[in-house]
Amino acid sequence: MAADIRIVPCLTDNFGYLIHDRSSGATASIDAPEAAPLIAALEKEGWKLTDILVTHHHGDHVGGIAELKKKYHCRVVAPHDANAKIADADLRVEEGDVVKVGGLSARVLETPGHTLDHISYVFDDDRALFAADTLFSIGCGRVFEGTYPMMWESLLKLRALPDDYKLYCGHEYTASNVKFALTIEPDNAALQARAKQVEQQRGAGQPTIPVTLGEEKQANVFLRADVPAVAAAIGFAGESAADVFGEIRERKNNS
Ligand SMILES: [Zn+2]
């Protein structure tokens, strides 16, 4: 593996991430929730920030960009966005674009729903998916700007990635997501196993990330809206997967 990945907790429950290419020395931050913890992590490793790969325009993902850019003169890669809501962007990317971080390559997937500009970065060679606020472990982002069918399509796009890819998401929400998911699928063995693991991880003060996509496909109810038993569990047997997804998301909003 050419890439080193570090998890950098930021703000209250955001995950910052650094991905470092040993051969070239290039280092990217995935989003920039907060400058200080990212700078501390970079200094600890002796890495210099070369790129910031932005997933969407929310303040808790872009708040640290200005300070980091001033300090490191790094390149800011941001979603293609007609409204240009992300300041300091040097490069705008869209579906299918490939972003180089030294010798590393990130493929851009448009995953709208949480916001309309939301993109995810897939480092295929390193089996890593940075999905920010589209896909959480055992959860998904709130659908603020898009529609439920749009968000469901975005989740399907991520679900199509191989099982051994690791998910790095935008927030440490896993424990509350597990609690909610068990109200829909109390008998899901993969979810029960994840619940135990999350309890141990949180008890030990460890992050619940990363997790493999294979595990998420089995345990994350938001990726399972097209499973007949899930539809039946919420009284939506025979309804479309997008409608089942929308109902589950509504219930989570109100939980
Ligand atoms: Zn967000």
From TrEMBL:
Keywords of the record: Hydrolase, Metal-binding, Zinc
Any one Pfam family match given in the protein's UniProt record, by short name: Lactamase_B
Pathway listed: Secondary metabolite metabolism; methylglyoxal degradation; (R)-lactate from methylglyoxal: step 2/2
Annotated residues for binding of Zn(2+) 2: 60-61, 133, 171
Residue span(s) of domain Metallo-beta-lactamase: 13-171
Enzyme class per UniProt: hydrolase
Record EC number: 3.1.2.6
Binding locations of Zn(2+) 1: 56, 58, 114, 133
Gene Ontology MF terms: hydroxyacylglutathione hydrolase activity; metal ion binding
Cofactor note: Binds 2 Zn(2+) ions per subunit.
SUPFAM superfamilies given in the database record: Metallo-hydrolase/oxidoreductase (SSF56281)
Single Gene Ontology BP annotation: methylglyoxal catabolic process to D-lactate via S-lactoyl-glutathione
Necessary cofactors: Zn(2+)
Subunit structure, interactors included: Monomer.
Family that this chain belongs to: Belongs to the metallo-beta-lactamase superfamily. Glyoxalase II family.
Protein name, as recorded: Hydroxyacylglutathione hydrolase
Organism name: Rhodopseudomonas palustris
